Amino acid sequence: MSRTNAPAPADREDGTTTAPVGSLSHGLKQRHLSMIALGGVIGAGLFVGSGEGIAKAGPSIVLAYALSGVLVMLVMRMLGEMSAANPASGSFSVHAERAFGPWAGFTSGWAFWFLLCVAVGLEGLGAAGIMSGWFPGTPEWAWVALFMLVFCGTNLAAVKNFGEFEFWFAALKIGAIVLFLVIGALAIVGVIPADEAAKAASETAGGTGGGGFLPNGVDGLIFGLLASLFAYGGLETVTIAAAESEHPVQGVAKAVRTAMWRIAIFYIGSMAVIVAIVPWNDPAVAEKGPYVATLDYLGIPAAGQIMNVVVLVALLSAMNANIYGASRMACSLVARRMGPQAIGRTFGGVPRLAVLVSCVLGFACVMLSYWSPDKAFIWLLNTIGAIILVVWFFIAASQLALRRRTERETPEKLVVRMWLFPGLTIVALAGMVAVFILMAMEPGTREQLYYTGGLTIALAIVGLVLQNRRGDATAAPAAAPEATPVEPAAADGEAADDDKKPVAADKA
């Protein structure tokens, strides 16, 4: 792909080099993308959060993860199709803008940015909790500040540093899950016996678990489904990162194809191993986490500390990835004149101001957890509760709108194709609507749905106002191309989609 049409960098009086808004580098390699795709979704939600789902759903948690995994695979296939056809650091935000207009890109993009910034703070708190346990008496906020400084510095440097961090983080997480699956399989066939003390404690807690496949009925399955669905969040980052790779089209296509089935094996396989070994109603599953409970049950020495290290790595990896994703999404939005131009300027191919703003907001969320834990912090948690589902809805709706257009105008760009289009796209949209309905029915998730809905509506209104103010070309359903050297394919596609007055990104 040609890079000759990249805007030239500007020399500043202080000797540093800046580039126009949205101009990014190409420091990521295929191995980085592949590991980002695999490791980005493997976080504390799987290692720890899945325990609550198992405690409510019982053995049916396997079905819950399978159902949600199918939905996520469909979403990633759709996103892979659009991102391979038009690689952009704004990913689904750019696709939504091309499909429905600037308001859709604005809404999905800033909602996702807000989600990532809050998640940075939450992951920092989780990692700090582990460190404070290892070093009693140390304040958690100090650990968060340290982690924030490290990963802010990593993301302020060249993008290849982010790629290397994520490569090794993801390798450790994947290695831990593969080892867990191997140990679990050996235990199931009887090669590794269970520890007698742990076995006795588990049997005292609940015998063999009891209750059959659906011990808590359909309600338990629904709870497990909702818990598992949001544990899959994080796959979107690979399509954002692809825009800064050496070969964006080939990179995102390969990463999406290989990641989906492997992640399904990791998630569904892990749940199957856990419920096959440990009684689902053993209190340790929810208290210690399912992985620790399983290793304890098998008598693996220092299982708790081993998993604490893995969870710590998962949290730090997620912090790193979310700072990266938030800064690139903000940079893309600004390049399309949907935010303050100052934070979109790049330095050496890195949007450093966007990185700093994202880190500051993430740390502010941490401070809220201390200053107002019962009000402001809870409001933040509820607000981000269903954002990822809103993003997935935009992805599916955009793919449904753009596929025909791409087939008609640039069919050669469809190097990744959604299966059985449009049937499975419609099935995915219907599945998301069903999840929204289930969330409204469950008391524990209803409030999250309301708060997320309020944020989405507010952003949509602001986006529509901005779109109407800009008028003329920007009101058409086509995205303004990002001013970045990685986007020639995206710019061509967008130009074909908008035969009126395409708006270029501002060049300060």
From TrEMBL:
Region annotated Disordered, chain positions: 1-24, 475-508
Biological process, per Gene Ontology: amino acid transport; transmembrane transport
Top-level taxonomy: Bacteria, Bacillati, Actinomycetota, Actinomycetes, Kitasatosporales
Major localisation: membrane
Topology with respect to the bilayer: Multi-pass membrane protein
Transmembrane regions listed in the UniProt entry: 33-51, 57-76, 110-135, 141-159, 171-192, 221-243, 263-280, 300-319, 353-371, 377-402, 414-437, 449-466
Protein name: Amino acid permease
Low complexity bias (residue ranges): 475-493
Keyword line: Amino-acid transport, Membrane, Transmembrane, Transmembrane helix, Transport
CC per GO annotation: membrane
Entry's localization field: Membrane
Protein family (similarity comment): Belongs to the amino acid-polyamine-organocation (APC) superfamily. Amino acid transporter (AAT) (TC 2.A.3.1) family.
Stored Pfam families: AA_permease
Domain Amino acid permease/ SLC12A, residue spans: 32-446
Biased composition (Basic and acidic residues): 498-508
Keyword Transport belongs to the record: yes
Organism for this UniProt entry: Streptomyces laurentii
